[in-house]
């Protein structure tokens, strides 16, 4: 089995790959708690989403390791879960069963696009500044959700949004945020997970020892329990094909497409995981894995799966083969039986993780040329409309349409590829359908 991963050819060994797999898991494990905390706000049962999250992460990471032979973990994607819960279900009023059907159909579309390499052609047609802006906008959206879940940002009739006054809950969140940030700065492995555990423990006195009027945030329900498979096959395949749901499927396709390809390319370049042509190693197999992860997510009850940029932690630890992903994937499995333990984690405990993950996701913003206004303005619109409208779809649509409009108005029509014009047509259709 070890010879299958060609450890010697990749200048690595079993010990290094195992350590790298553990490191990637620690960097990624926060999704076990964060994904259920987000999707449960859409009315889905926390424990069942946790089970679905583990299943997607386990099977998809194994597939990435064995089939694509890449040291990259796959799990339900941040940003994609936010769109599922806050834009599709809460914002558009789509029942979560129908939204799961949309996830499934987007996964089928991913498979077709990946199998025929159409997906890669589409990505090449999308202007790089818009890619950077969309990734950064999603980061801001996730950060806004984190601050809102913590009660730090609240509604204000005069200013639309405002900041809450100091209270025990807010102080607990700020303490967790500071600790997690310090651990990240000091490069402590598993910093986000440690921050979640610390904030959870600190939240225990709320409503108990501190004499607040609020109900206790943590209700102990035990440690072990059988997995909750109640979300399996709960997707609505028929109603998710209605015309009104097409914009949701469209958004899943676009967002996951940007996320997975940018992650694969970025990690491959950073770790020199390239083939003879200088392209990311086994990129087609990796994209097929990503597509299968999304399809599986719809079937078991989660938002789409995608390659995780946090896999860079394991790659930095020396991981170079698919064995890293196999080790990391296997470590997800025990959490099938720990749902009661993890379900005690309150929203303010995962809020610091959401805020700081958002900080990671805005890194591409520095790659935008802000002095070239015909590109900077569309990028800016995509960047700010995603958090301001609570809609990833709106940010994507208006970013593309404004890009095309400005290029035409400034006599740069030749910079618009036919594929980009097709994307614009889909954007217009999405607006009409919505």
UniProtKB/TrEMBL annotation:
Domain of life of the organism encoding this protein: Bacteria
InterPro entries: Azg-like, Azg-like_bact_archaea, NCS2
Subcellular location: Cell membrane
One example GO MF annotation: purine nucleobase transmembrane transporter activity
Record-annotated membrane-spanning stretches: 12-32, 38-60, 72-92, 98-118, 130-154, 166-185, 192-211, 231-254, 323-342, 348-366, 378-401, 416-433
Main location: membrane
PANTHER family, per database record: XANTHINE/URACIL PERMEASE C887.17-RELATED, XANTHINE_URACIL PERMEASE C887.17-RELATED
Pfam families, sorted: Xan_ur_permease
Alphabetized UniProt keyword annotations: Cell membrane, Membrane, Transmembrane, Transmembrane helix, Transport
GO cellular component, one term: plasma membrane
Family label: Belongs to the nucleobase:cation symporter-2 (NCS2) (TC 2.A.40) family. Azg-like subfamily.
Protein name, entry field: Putative MFS transporter, AGZA family, xanthine/uracil permease
Membrane topology note: Multi-pass membrane protein
């Amino acid at each position: 089995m070890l010879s299958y991963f060609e450890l010697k050819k990749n200048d690595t060994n079993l010990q290094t790959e195992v350590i790298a797999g553990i490191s990637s898991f620690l960097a990624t494990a926060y999704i076990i708690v964060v994904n259920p905390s987000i999707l449960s706000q859409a009315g889905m049962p926390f424990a069942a989403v946790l089970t679905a999250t583990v299943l997607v992460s386990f099977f998809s990471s194994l597939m990435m390791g064995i089939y694509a032979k890449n040291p990259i973990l796959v799990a339900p994607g941040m940003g994609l879960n936010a769109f599922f819960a806050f834009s599709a279900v809460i914002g558009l009023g789509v029942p979560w069963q129908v939204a799961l059907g949309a996830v499934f159909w987007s996964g089928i579309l991913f498979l077709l696009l990946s199998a025929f390499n159409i997906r890669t052609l589409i990505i090449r047609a999308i202007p790089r500044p818009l890619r950077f802006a969309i990734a950064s906008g999603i980061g801001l959206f996730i950060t806004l959700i984190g601050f809102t879940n913590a009660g730090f940002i609240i509604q204000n009739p005069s200013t639309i949004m405002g900041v809450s006054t100091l209270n025990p809950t807010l102080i607990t969140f700020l303490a967790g945020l500071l600790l997690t940030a310090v651990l990240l700065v000091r490069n402590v492995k598993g910093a986000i997970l440690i921050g979640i555990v610390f904030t959870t423990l600190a939240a225990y006195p709320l409503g108990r020892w501190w004499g607040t009027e609020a109900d206790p945030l943590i209700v102990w329900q035990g440690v072990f329990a059988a997995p909750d498979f109640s979300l399996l096959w709960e997707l609505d395949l028929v109603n998710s094909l209605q015309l009104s749901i097409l914009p949701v499927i469209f958004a899943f396709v676009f967002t996951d497409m940007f996320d997975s390809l940018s992650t694969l390319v970025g990690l491959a370049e950073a770790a020199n995981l390239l083939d003879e042509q200088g392209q990311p190693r086994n990129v087609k197999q990796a994209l097929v894995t990503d597509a299968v992860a999304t399809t599986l997510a719809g079937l078991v009850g989660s938002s789409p799966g995608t390659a995780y940029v946090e896999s860079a932690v394991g790659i930095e630890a020396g991981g170079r083969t698919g064995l890293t992903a196999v080790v990391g994937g296997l470590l997800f499995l025990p959490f099938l039986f720990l749902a009661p333990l993890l379900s005690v984690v309150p929203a303010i405990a995962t809020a610091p993780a959401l805020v700081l993950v958002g900080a990671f996701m805005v890194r591409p913003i520095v790659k935008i040329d802000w002095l070239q206004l015909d590109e900077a303005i569309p990028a800016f619109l995509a960047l700010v409309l995603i958090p301001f409208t609570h809609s990833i779809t709106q940010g994507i649509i208006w970013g593309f349409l404004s890009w095309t409009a400005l290029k035409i108005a400034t006599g740069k029509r030749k910079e618009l590829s036919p594929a980009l014009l097709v994307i614009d047509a889909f954007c217009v259709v999405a607006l009409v359908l919505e």
